[in-house]
Write a structure and sequence with these properties.
By secondary structure, the protein is mainly α. The chain has one domain.
């Protein structure tokens, strides 16, 4: 029961952050902005896509396998870590509402998902090879982000800016990103081996 309540709280928080960010962007984009145009722009970002997935699956209170629980936890943890380490200095919301949604995406949801994973998520059967599979989604997103940038010149993140970085620079940046996901994936697997509450033994 506690797990179900926490999942609803996480899903609702992710959804509320998405709704709030939509409102903020509608106001900042001017009178010609529509919900469709705002969402088309928002969906270029890994942060938005990952929080959207979390809003849906946590509000539905889906039962995860150990692999998928670890996968979704790693993705949202890296949303928070990458933002606070690499992007927060140059990304400052213009309004208080934008600040609230920003911390929902990058701080509160990642922290609560990690707590959910640590306390409730199944961990039995995880192996080091799981970390390799968890890197696939970020690499698929990278291809999508580069494609989105090629349409209008607005690349969602500096490390996906192919025209600016060039092929070699892009390969370097993506190697760093993939290595980061692998490293944190291995850390998550290490935690899973050390911390297995009785509720996660299934």
């Amino acid at each position: 029961m506690h797990e179900q309540r926490l999942m609803v709280v996480i899903g609702a928080l992710a959804l509320a952050s998405l709704v709030l960010q939509t409102y903020v962007d509608l106001r900042s984009d001017g009178p010609e902005a529509t919900v469709l145009s705002v969402w088309w722009n928002m969906l270029r970002y890994y942060t938005i896509l990952t929080n959207l997935v979390i809003a849906v699956v946590f509000l539905m209170r889906l039962q995860f396998t150990a692999h998928w629980a670890g996968a979704i936890t790693l993705q949202i943890l890296l949303v928070g870590i990458v933002y606070h380490v690499l992007l927060s200095a140059t990304h400052v919301p213009d309004t208080m509402l934008g600040e609230v949604s920003n911390h929902g995406f990058h701080t509160l949801v990642p922290a609560l998902v990690f707590v959910w994973w640590l306390v409730y998520a199944p961990k039995r059967g995880l192996g080091w090879d799981n970390a390799l599979w968890w890197v696939i989604w970020p690499l698929i997103y990278a291809a999508y982000g580069i494609w989105r940038g090629s349409l209008d010149g607005k690349y969602p993140y500096y490390f996906l800016n192919l025209p600016k970085l060039g092929p070699v620079g892009l390969l370097r940046e993506m190697s760093i990103v993939a290595a980061g996901f692998l490293i944190f994936g291995f850390i998550l697997l290490g935690i899973a081996r050390l911390y297995r509450p009785s509720s996660s033994s299934k």
